[in-house]
Amino acid sequence: MSSRRVVLALALSSLRYRAAASLASFVAILAGCGLLIACAGLFETAIVLKAAPERLSAAPLVVGGSAGFKLPDEESQVVPYAERAVLPEDQVAKISAVQGVGQAVPDVSFATVLLHDGAPEPGASVLSGHGWDSASLGGYQLTEGAAPNTPGQVVLDSATASAAGLHAGSAVDLAVNGQRQSFQISGVAQPSQTVRAPAFFFSVADAQRFNAHPGTVGLVGVFPADGVDAADLAGKISEQVPSLTVLTGDDRGSAEFVGVGGSQLPLILLAAVFGGMVLVVMALVVSATISLTVRQRQQELALLRATGATPKQVHRMVVMETMAVGALAAVCGAFLGSLLGNWIFSTSGSLGIVPDELAFTQDIIAFAAGIVATLAITFGAAWFAALAASRARPIQALAEAAIPGAKVNAVRRMGALICGAATVLLASTTVFMPADSAAAIGGPALLTGAIGVALLGPEIIAWVVDRFGPFVRRVAGRDATLAVVNTRARAVAFAAVLTPITLATAVALGNVYSETTAQKAQVSAYAGQLQADAVLTSAAGGFSPDELARIRSTPGVSTSSPLVTSSGWIEDPYDGNGSDPLRLLGVAPQDQGGTVLATEVTEGSLTALRGDSVALPASVADDLEIKVGAKIKMRLGDGAQVPVTVVALLDSPSSYASMVLPADLLAAHTTSGLASQVLVRGGDAGAIVSALSDRAKDWPGVTVGDDSALAASFQASADVEALINYLLAVLAIAYAAIAAVNTLSVAVLARRREFGAQRLAGADRGQVKRMLFVEGGIVAVTGLVLGIVISLFTVVPMALTTGEIIPSGPVWVFLAVVLAIFLIVWPATALSARLAMRRNAIEAVKMPGQ
Q1: Is residue 147 domain-resident?
Q2: Where is the ABC3 transporter permease C-terminal domain (predicted)?
């Protein structure tokens, strides 16, 4: 039998005698592999953006406007627009003229909400109004009544009619473009498949009247002529009618559901950031676990060397053992990755990070990537862990097995110094960056700091015990004496536990408090650019012109302005924001009563903010060398390129600046075409809120609040970004917690002989457990302190970039993290101690172990 086969047979046969250590490695690799595969699935979902069409399912092809903004400095990269890109009506005729097109059906969508007792249902879908001619795109067939042939008639989808108890011939109240109107139900239609969003189909005349973007259509559904292949026809349409997006298959859903394209960046961010974090955390955790198991076998490996095994054979045996466990864990991790991927994605949908219509995609590529990365990390960890054991001389290895040294080698010390320097460099660099991009630079400081702790772990434990050992003895009593000695002697083993605790603390506190600090600054900056005594918010799609006029005429109102929000770019000269466009605010021109803008004007005047004009942040104008009176080209949220004149420069915050346009101009380039909020100023804020509340009773879905509602609206959009970081923190903490319990259990269970000897010397089980609790407390406190310090290298620079000294965030998060660490360490210690002392003391002393 060859030496390779002998080593393999020895490796496999030894696994059953090391069940606890093998199980620890298996769990660490299994969890890491599952998370990596889940991240790969999220990334694939972001790239594919699979969203099966519903209302457009009957049309084999869907033609929409431009897919996104092609960045001038990176023409291969396309950033999705924030709004729906519409098509001019004349494009419908051009599409119909393409050979092979059987029928081209235009579709428009406008804000329509069913009213119950004068108010819309909470969370009701808004863009639900369409022309009857587009009913064929979803295969809608009348089950009652007739088509809406005259103005004032409407056809309801069967699900909506059934839920509301409505039938053909009934009267119904709808809020169309924010205005309450009564219609007669001419019929009820059933779609060809399940459609979750309600649909209200109006006559052609009404659809044209309600279209918020006259002269345009939202999209065009195309039915190929008989015998024409849809894919071939899509190519022809793209060639003959350029600058349009032609979609087939499940890609059609991105045209139907506006939010699908906008979810790409959050998903990529979630997958990339968390995937990178998992890679680093997994490498640290798996390395610590495998190193601990190898260290505990030092005496066994030394005996193999003493009986004639070569260093190469010992090294190969350890690697083979680990890879056997790793391969099994990776296979099982594929099943776990599928479950975790679906859970993370569904959680992201419930939190509003991604739209419900987007489907989770996870194929063989995602599984292969996760498994390959897992096996590579496992092999690297096993190779390095076995290297020191195989190179050690037998006598030296036996001595190290008895009293493991806490001193790390020069390579690890140099690596720790490099990681420490990188942490300081990242933190200091963050201070000088804009707050909106500082998190991307400061975040990696958490990982570099944790890596440095992992490399110096044994020496850190030894230093803590030497420095604070006397204090621990005074506080914890006589049981602490042996605990301090054990912690010092077993610094290498406890360092493996220290690493995941430090990681969990640093990631949790760093991610959460960085985000809460940045979020507070962001909301304060955006809301601080506006001023209002009362804020009206519509849940019915927006405010109609009639409502805007009545708001202006309310007694006590001196200034009122619709507020429109979107995002866009300065295209010429290009602002270079790329995938992170600037926020656009649309407000009414300044009048004699004042303005709702609170930002100081440094040059120019807001009275000229009319027509095709813009007020730019002074910092943006300076960077692009734009002066008042200059003509620039902007790319707005629906993809329209609009030439505008700069009429004013604003002293906006540099980190969260907004470009201000006339509300009418910006609203015309949003999906709904309406303002969803109105800001009001006057003399007595309380009186204005009361007067407007009385009038708002007749306006469907309109609520009136004070100026705090302004910050709340910005907070809602910021919360989506924050939820990504919270989800990352929870998942990373969960994995680190599993690793900490895993490693701690192995370290305790390996000490059966020690516990047996202590009990034979007169100690009872309670004293042994109290000793272990003190040991766990030392490691937990050390990990907490290190994690807090590491998190400060991210949190404090983030606070400084926002102009604050003290970070913002709830105190309960800090207390919860501290409590969670002790709930991880002490229960795991108690359970492991109970298992380790199941046998009587004499049997325990006879068992193999340390």
Answers
A1: yes
A2: 273-392, 727-840
Is 775 found in the same domain as 675?
Answer: no
Rounded to whole angstroms, how far apart are CA atoms 634 and 646? 11
* 219 belongs to a structural domain: no
What b/e sequence results for 750-766 when a residue is b if at least 16 CB atoms lie within 10 Å of its CB, and e otherwise? Answer: bbbbbbbebbeeebeee
Q: What is the DSSP letter of 86?
A: P
Q: What is the pLDDT of residue 1?
A: 47
Q: Do 509 and 539 have their domain in common?
A: no
782 and 659 in a common domain: no
Contact of 278 with 35, CB cutoff 8 Å: yes
Q: What is residue 759's DSSP assignment?
A: H
Query: How many Cα atoms are found within 13 Å in the side-chain-facing hemisphere of 373?
Result: 26
| Distance from C-alpha of 349 to C-alpha of 721, rounded to nearest angstrom | 13
d(CA 461, CA 128): 63
Label the pairing between strands 631-635 and 557-572: antiparallel
Q: Which domain holds residue 154?
A: 109-210
| Cα angle 429-435-440, degrees, rounded to a multiple of 5 | 60
Tens of pLDDT, residue by residue over 818-828, are 998 898 888 88
The amino acid at residue 168 is: A
The reply to whether 81 falls in a domain is no
Angle of helix 311-350 relative to helix 364-391, nearest 10 degrees, comes to 150
Residues 384 and 422 in one domain: no
Q: How do residues 609-654 score in pLDDT, each as one tens digit?
A: 888 999 999 888 888 889 999 999 999 988 889 999 999 999 877 6
Q: Closest Cα partner for 259 from 455, 435, 83? A: 83
State which of 180, 195, 210 marks the end of a domain.
Answer: 210
How does pLDDT run across 420-457, given as a tens digit for each residue? 898 888 888 877 776 666 666 667 888 888 888 888 88
What are 292-314's pLDDT values in tens digits?
Answer: 677 666 666 666 666 666 777 77
Kindly tell me if the per-residue pLDDT of 18 is higher than 70.
Answer: no
Indicate whether 55 belongs to any domain: no
The residues, ordered by sequence, that sit 6+ positions from 682 with a Cβ below 8 Å of its Cβ are: 533, 534, 556, 557, 558, 559, 688
pLDDT at 299: 65
Structure tokens at 838: 């199941």
